[in-house]
Design goal:
Blueprint (H helix, E strand, L loop, with lengths): L3 E8 L3 H15 L6 E8 L2 E8 L2 H24 L1
Antiparallel strand pairs: 1-3, 2-3
Helix pairs in contact: 1-2
Length: 80
């Protein structure tokens, strides 16, 4: 079976916002998973996410988890 891949680039309003969200989400995103691998980096006001998984279900699960963490972090930055 072919491995499944998602590559994302998320642009934020500022480098400061991207940095806050990066550090808030990184510990959860970088946890080791059996069926997927995630790379996560920040460059200026951009977050880059690369997910590689053994199957579509693992890819979807990793993607959904990351997006949940990012969504929550973004909401928190809007409140503060």
């Amino acid at each position: 079976m072919l491995e499944q891949i998602i590559e994302l680039k998320l642009l934020f309003k500022s480098t400061a916002e991207a940095k806050i969200i990066y550090w808030a989400v990184k510990p959860d995103v970088m946890k080791h998973q059996r069926r997927s691998e995630t790379r996560f980096r920040r460059s200026g006001h951009t977050l880059e996410i690369f997910i590689r998984a053994h199957d579509k279900n693992a890819l979807r699960a990793s993607f959904n988890a990351i997006m949940s963490h990012l969504s929550l972090a973004k909401k928190v930055t809007e409140i503060c």
